[in-house]
Amino acid sequence: MTPQNVLRQSRAPLYLQVAEILRQRIARGTWREGDLLPTLSDLANEFSVAKITVRQAVKLLEQEGLLAPRRGRGTTVLPQAPAQRPLKVETRLADLLEVYSGDTPDLVGLEDRRAELPGSPEIGTPAPEGYHLLRRMHSREGQHYCIIAIYCAVPVFERHAARLREELALPVLLRSPDIDIRKAHQTLVIGKSDDETASLLGLAIGDPVANVRRILCDASGQILYLADVIYRGDYIRLEMDLLA
């Protein structure tokens, strides 16, 4: 499918779509620091849009600090900030501890209350005592990268409430000798950000996100921990060793 056909399928303004294509080319290294962009006429022809549309897109990227006009030369690509450290979606429970090393929970929590488990969990049975919900954001290098809703079985939560409110929950649970995890399950689904997610994570409505659910069960199959996590799509990287 040609670029112009793709542009016509979206409801977003054309200049925003062109800006995103140019932004991605810079991010992927198609254009590097100091490179000159094609002329407005060339870009307008490539995308089958008016030159004013391309000019608006370029102006937007100039405001973002990605491009700069050079008198008599054209528009050049500026040095880019170092890319954020990606968050690997591990497929082994032990490896998750290393992933979260150095991260911090946002201490301004969104919710802290008793709650029922959401939906129908993929594995396990609910704890008869019920659950405590901690909903908050996690940060990495000053950037909120996920919203997490943690449902912890009440007996477990009451024993570790102080630490669970101040620290990352998964390391607390996995390193506590009184908690015996015998089964763990994780699912990942790609979705789009809604208005609340966009506002909290600094995204646009409809931007890609990764929805992850993690469930930890004890030997009897009782759910001790269930977490629903919404990650920024640009912070997620899934790697798998196919020969392992």
Please render the helix and strand layout as text.
Elements: H1 3-9, H2 14-27, H3 40-47, H4 51-63, E1 67-70, E2 74-77, E3 87-88, H5 93-99, E4 104-105, E5 111-115, E6 131-140, E7 143-153, H6 154-166, H7 169-174, E8 183-192, H8 195-201, E9 208-217, E10 223-232, E11 236-237
Parallel strand pairs: 3-11
Antiparallel strand pairs: 1-2, 4-6, 5-6, 6-7, 7-10, 8-9, 9-10
Mean pLDDT: 86
Overall domain count: 2
**What's the CATH topology name of the largest domain?**
Chorismate lyase
What fraction of residues sit in β-strands?
A: 25-35%
Give a count of the beta strands, DSSP E runs of length 2 or more: 11
Q: What's the CATH C level of the largest domain?
A: Alpha Beta
Number of helices: 8
CATH superfamily of the largest domain: Chorismate lyase-like
CATH architecture of the largest domain: 3-Layer(aba) Sandwich
* Rg estimate, integer Å: 23 Å
- Spans of at least 5 consecutive residues with low confidence: none
> Helicity, in percent?
25-40%
Biggest sheet record = 7 strands, antiparallel
Indicate the structural class: alpha+beta
Order of secondary-structure elements? HHHHEEEHEEEEHHEHEEE
Give the N-terminus to C-terminus distance in angstroms: 37 Å
Give the overall form.
elongated
How is this structure best described in words?
31% of the residues lie in helices and 29% in strands. By secondary structure, the chain is α+β, with helices and mostly antiparallel strands. It is built from 8 helices and 11 strands. Helix 3 packs across helix 4 (51-63). The longest helix is centred in the N-terminal third of the chain and has 14 residues, at 14-27. It folds into 2 domains: 3-77, Orthogonal Bundle (Arc Repressor Mutant, subunit A); 87-237, Chorismate lyase, CATH 3.40.1410.10. A hairpin with a 2-residue loop joins strand 6 and strand 7 (143-153). Strands 4, 5, 6, 7, 8, 9 and 10 form a 7-stranded antiparallel sheet that branches. The protein has a two-stranded antiparallel sheet with strand order 1-2.
